[in-house]
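Hello Y.,

Per our agreement to keep a running log of every chain we model this quarter, I'm adding this entry. I've kept the format consistent with earlier entries: sequence first, then predicted structure.
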Amino acid sequence: MNILLAGATGYLGTYITDRLQSQLFNYKVIVRNPDTLIKKGIDPTRIIKAELTNPTTLENCCEEIDAVISTVGITRQKEGLTYMDVDYQANLNLLNEALKSGVKKFIYVSVLNGKRLRHLKICDAKERFVEKLEESGIEYCVIRPNGFFSDLSDFYNMAKKGKVYLFGDGEFKSNPIHGKDLAEFCLKAIGRSEKELEVGGPQTVTHNEMAEMAFEVVGNTPKIIHIPNCVRWLILKTVRLLTCSKVYGPIEFFMTVMAMDMIAPEYGKHTLKQHFEHLQNESEKR
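Predicted structure for the entry above:
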């Protein structure tokens, strides 16, 4: 099985690359800057230098590849690129190469509840690509993970400063997932037949419980401030009115998913508290 990974330098892509390397898979990765991976000890012969937003640089990248895994997407629009440029078009460019080279399976990592959240620009771009993937005729799997632990580091940072701010009564539930667990799940999906898979971490907790975990780890007395939903809507409307999509895109996504339940089938072994403890250990080393 020859695997091609796109998005190898991102949060999830880094963990998938580590697993591909440690388990001696036959693989290649596509990156804009090979130096980042070469410094980590990745064999340069496994690296394809290309710009996914530029289809001419992708020519023949999928030759002799059996399965493509794409984690490509942007949280913050930068370098003049939009969600449609990256989450949609860059993935479509890669899909076209996969089709041309006869790739057997295409795995795309999207977002949990993406179809319900299409009113958000980032989710709309992802779902437009999902539609193209479904229409392509290739065997595929869309993986829909819950939030990453890295996305919830703000709980730790706020607890360290003494106060955690939450929307509503703090009883919205979620089961975020660690990159290591999700990387394992993505590779196992190559051999599965499902067209769509939702996945979250091993513990489903409320936002209040997340805050309490963070306070326990940093050793501060819990002080949780609950922000009324009307204030959240006011902030969203103001940000949309006064800023461009480059600014409000990630803000509206975060403020939307933090005001709803985000629950997926539980998977993995790494807990959010362990993530907070890791952040605390790193902080104490400095």
